[in-house]
User: Fold these one by one.
Assistant:
Number 1:
Amino acid sequence: MDVMVGRVRGFQRGVGRISPAALVVRAGVFLVVLAGLALAYPAEVLSGRPLAFLAFVALTPAVGPRRVWPTFAALVTVGGWVLATDGYDRPVTLWRLLALAALLYLGHTLCALAALLPYDAVVDPELITRWLLRAGAVLLGAAVLGVLLLQAAGIGGDTGHQWATVLGLLVAVGLSALLGWLLRRR
C-alpha cells in the first residue's frame, strides 16, 4: 500500500512541475495530428467511435513523442488518405495533398521539439517561435518547389499518376538509406 501512495504522490509532484511551454508544444502536437487525421479521413468516418479512436491516435504522440507513437500516428494518417482515395473514391487534389503533407511534417517537427523539452523545462518563447518559423519556411519552400516541379513535368490537375508515386517512394527510400549510411559512417 505504501508503494501505491508513493507513486500517487510522485505523480502529483510531477504534474505540479509541468511548465506551460511543454504543455503548449504538446497541445500543438495533438491539434496538428488531429487536423491531419481529419483531413485524411473521409467525412463518413469522422463520427462516433472512429472519431474517438482518431482523437486517441492524435493524443499518443503528444504524450510520448520519443517513442513509436509519432510514426504510428503518421501511418494511421496515411492509411486514412489511402482509405479516402481508394475506398471512398475521393479525388486526389493538389491542395489536399499539400495540406496533408504540411500537417504531417509539422506534426513530425513538433514531436521532435516536444521530445527535446522535458515536462518541467523553462523555455524562452522565442525558441518555440524560431522553431515554428523555420518549419514554416521549410513548408513554404517545399510547397512552392513541389508545385513548380509538378507544373514543369506536366503532372497536375485531378488525375494521379502511379509512376510519380512510385518514383517519389523510391527517392524517399534512397534518401533514407543515404542518411542511414552517413550516420553509421561517423
Number 2:
Amino acid sequence: MTAVPRPTPDPVGEPQRRPTLTPRELEVLRRWLRSESKTVAAADLGISLGTINTHLIRIRAKYAAVGRPVADKSGLLIRAVQDGLVSLAEL
C-alpha cells in the first residue's frame, strides 16, 4: 500500500485541504482513472454505471466541500495525484 504524503502547501502557503474518501470511493476513483470509460470501470468492478456515477458525484462533492472543486476526469486526476491517492506510474 502507498503511504499517504502530507498535504503540500498551496501558492499562498496554506496547506491544501484533502477530502476524506472511503476505501470504496478510492477504489472506484483509481479504477475509473485507469479505465477508458465509466462503463469499463463499472464492468471491471462488477457494479453498475449508476453506482460509478454515484461514487464520482460524492467524490466531487467532497472536494468541493474542502474548497477544491473539480468538474471532470482530468481535474480529478490532478487532485488524486496532488493528494497522493494515485501515482502516474499506476496509470
Number 3:
Amino acid sequence: MKDLSEMISGMDFAFFGSGQHAMSMEGMKKNLGNDQVLFLDIRTNEEVAHVSFPFARHIPLSELPDRLAEVPKDKLVVAFCSSVFRGAIAYTYLLSQGFEKVKALTANTEDMVQAFKPGPLYKS
C-alpha cells in the first residue's frame, strides 16, 4: 500500500501536464476490445440501471474496497463515472492499493453516450 500523502505530493504540474493519469474519449475508443485494458465503471447501481456500458466491469465506488480482488493488477485499469470526480477517487484509491497501471477517463457519461450513437460508431 502506498502512502497517500506521498502520492499526492507527486501530483504536481509535471504529473498532470504529462497526462499520465488520464485517458481521453479517443483513447477509450482505441482501446475497446483490448484485452489488456479493463474499463471500470464505478457509478452506482441506480445509474447503471439507466445507462450501461457492456464493455466495462461495473463495481460501484462504494463497493470497491470490498471487491478489490475483482480488479486485475496485470491490466491497465481505466476508472470512469458520470462526472469524472469519482473516477479520480478510484484512480487514487487503486494506486494506493498497489495498482501500477491505472488511469481515469476524462469523459463524462454524456460524452460516452454521444460517442456510442450510430453516427459516431459508424464513422469509427
Number 4:
Amino acid sequence: MTDAFFFGYGSLVNRKTHVYADAHRVKVSGWRRAWRHTALRPIAFLTAIPYADSAIDGLIAGVPGNDWAALDTREFAYDRIALTEAMDHPLPQRPEVAIYAIPEGKHGAPDRAHPVLLSYLDVVVQGYLEEFGEAGVADFFATTDGWEAPILDDRAAPYYPRAQALSAAEQQLVDRMLMDVGAKTVQHTEAERAAFDAGLRG
C-alpha cells in the first residue's frame, strides 16, 4: 500500500509537533491561509482557503499505513479533503495528498473570546523559520489573512498543548512581524480568562 500524505501549512510545518518523519518542503498553488474560529474550539486557528492567485509553502508528510486516526483527532475541527492543486515538491511521484481545511460557512472571524494564541503562532513561525528561513516567515505573514485578530499573549503560560521554547531571536522575529502587519497582542481580564479556561475544559 502506498502511503498517502498530508499537507501542513501551520503548526504541522514545525517538525517538533509531530512524528511524521517522511516530510518534504512543498509549495502549493491556489490557496491562502486565514485566521478563523469555529464552534468546536474556543481559540482561533489557521485554515486554508481557496485563492486562485496565491501559493503557500508548507510540508507534505507521509501517513504510515494510511492511518489517519491520530491526525484526524489532532485536526478535529477541520474537514480532511483531497488536495488536487499543483504542487512543487522533491518527490519523484505525485502522491495522494490531503489538506485539513474548514469549509466556507463553518467558521467566523476571531475576537477577544476566540483569540489567536501567541504560543501557537510562535510554533508556526519557528517551523517556517527552520524550513524556509526568514524569507519564508515573511511569506507566511503575507499569505495569511486576518491579522486584525486579537493575539492573546500566553507565552508565559502557554495554552497551546504543543508549545515550543523559542530563542530570544525567534521571539523577536515573531514580535517584529506582528508589528509589521499591524497585529495587536492582548491580555485577558480575570473574567475573560475564567471564561476562556472554562471553554478549554469544555
